[in-house]
Amino acid sequence: MARRIGSRYVALKVLGRGASGTVWAGEGPEGPVAIKLLREDLASDEVLVARFVQERTALVSLDHPGIVGIHDLVVDGSDLALVMDLVDGPDLRTRLEKEHVLTPALAAAVCADVAEGLSAAHAEGVIHRDVKPENVLLDTAHGQVRAKLTDFGIARLVDAPRRTRATRIIGTPDYLAPEIIEGLQPTAAVDVYALGTVLYELLTGWTPFGGGHPGAVLRRHVTEPVPGIPGLPAPVAEVLAACLSKAPAARLTAREVGERLRAAQPALAGLPRFDVPAPDGGGHPDRGETPPPLPAGVVPLVSGTEPDATRDTHTNLARPTFSAPPIAASRRRSTHRKRRNRTAAVVGTVLVLAIAGGTGWWLLGKDDESPKKQEPVGSTVSPSGVPAAAPAAPPPASPGSGDRAARVPVWDKWTQLPVAPVLLVGGPGAARPADAQTYVVQRDAAGQPWYSVGDGARFGDWQKLPAFKAAEDLAVTAPAPGRVDVLAVGSADRLLYRCSFADGGWGDWTRVDTKTKITGAPAATGDGDRLDIVVRSGDALMYGTLAGANWTGFAKVHKAGIIEQAPALTASVPGTMEAFVVRAGDHALLQVTFAAGDWREPQRVGTFAAAGRPATAWTPTGGLAVVVPELDGRAGATQTGRPQGNAGHLVGAVSLGDSWRPVSLDAAAPDGVAAVAATPERVDVYARTQNGRIQVAVPA
Known about the structure:
Elements: E1 3-5, E2 9-17, E3 21-28, E4 31-38, H1 40-43, H2 46-60, E5 70-76, E6 79-84, H3 92-99, H4 104-123, E7 136-139, E8 146-149, H5 154-158, H6 161-167, H7 178-181, H8 188-204, H9 214-223, H10 234-243, H11 254-263, H12 265-268, H13 329-364, E9 414-416, E10 424-431, E11 438-444, E12 449-454, E13 463-464, E14 475-480, E15 483-489, E16 496-502, E17 505-506, E18 510-511, E19 523-527, E20 530-537, E21 540-547, E22 550-551, E23 555-556, E24 563-571, E25 577-583, E26 588-595, E27 598-599, E28 603-609, E29 615-618, E30 624-631, E31 647-656, E32 659-668, E33 674-678, E34 683-688, E35 694-697
Antiparallel strand pairs: 1-2, 2-3, 3-4, 4-6, 5-6, 7-8, 9-35, 10-11, 11-12, 12-13, 14-15, 15-16, 16-17, 16-18, 19-20, 20-21, 21-22, 21-23, 24-25, 25-26, 26-27, 26-28, 29-30, 30-31, 31-32, 33-34, 34-35
């Protein structure tokens, strides 16, 4: 029977019922939708309704391929409903009940999808709090399985402190992080722990600490080590160990989990499903197998009960969740001190083993099977395939850390490129693939992209890229031999597009992102089939990753602050990037480093006031070069915050160790823009002259 939800939606048929409400398939003004109608007792809670209204903007703004998008929130009389994307496919729990375990490759792919969705949510300050198979939907509409995480915000809103005391809803025991059990405030790390538990379950059919009385499950999370999975390839075993670390700070970020699971796919290809016995040596109740009786001398946790063999801790959508009773504060502090002392002794032992294991690994000369990713050093792998210690985050690369001493280039001779058949506007972009010539790209007054290819001294005629209208300057990167990617902002929608050169020809323009409106030129760096991209949207720096056909969506880099001008981006080693932005207000040039899965606090470069977007590249001698147009006369800012004067000569800085040395370039940048391209021997600087010609400076 159809049911009207508010004034815009109609619920047509029930898809499923869960602990917090009923999900319907329905129709809205824009087509089919899923409608989650919350329970009546929740809808009648005025405080809860107010929280939903307050959180509406944050929930609706979550737009990512790995997240089931929320379209609307309906508050109508006794109805409280979330209107969401309608996903064509079952949830992950249904798939597990049918197959019991997944192939390692599919399990990793599903969890990588979820990790990327979590990463986008965490960047917006949203924590899921209830990651489990029931909340993962498998979209099969396009001929391949794509996992999407749903029920964002439900646990966070429903499990408010007042409601937790009343209904004891804090999450699902099998997937609860130890710090939640100990009463600490949840962070993004609790989602990573839950995702690690889901990955373990997909591989084995068991959660690592599940089974029996819920109290026993909670205790195991805090005190017991993770059972190993024999035969699991090391890259995935390391991800599991890091995700399921007892210490939140030792866990990977969601972005790192996604990256490492994608990189591990080659090692998982063709592997059969694992056949792992129950942790207690018994059978799997979901398969009709009977667990063994309790050993002699062991009594049930609850007097007068038989051992719980129903695995009720696999709480599905139709079952209520469980909350551990509160622990007295004094007892909790005492328990924490004892656990901290035990942990210190364990960590000391593990560290010795890790050092010994890492040394032996180095002596054997074992190469990383995934050279595109920087794997941590110092973790040992047990015979079961699970590392004995969580992997350490890779250290950030410091400027000038190459084998050769960094030196300051001298750009004192400029050469003009051939005259283009049209008037070129804006600033150039430049990149050089390995063992190839440099590609310089630029747009004309109509937005049509052009390119020229040369070696820094001589360039060929300008040629058109496939037809396109770009609203901003172009970005170009060379992620692999024989491949060039050009990124542009569409003039009609201000969204991000890409055109790639591969196999000797240019492909068509394809849209990369469907949501973020871009202000200014994009910037990118590439490695293999992966592109890391930064853009300015409004006054914020946004970051996203395109790995093959998988796009993470843009997430805000909060630490960059309020910026003006378009950003620049370069990478030295896998996992470490350097972004350069211009701070709004004082026009200072800032360096923002991405390392160990997170963006760091910005550092100022030089003392000049920037009038345009910067350009950057690593030098062959290990230094980091950045070039930016400077305000004429160093005029600074007016009371309105707008710069006085116009974009003048290019200025730059080159890193030497941990310091920056300023350099001056004898060239004007009429539109306040330039480009920097690194070759195996040098770093070339490109700029547009007053007459519309592109010129290049090759360092002496």
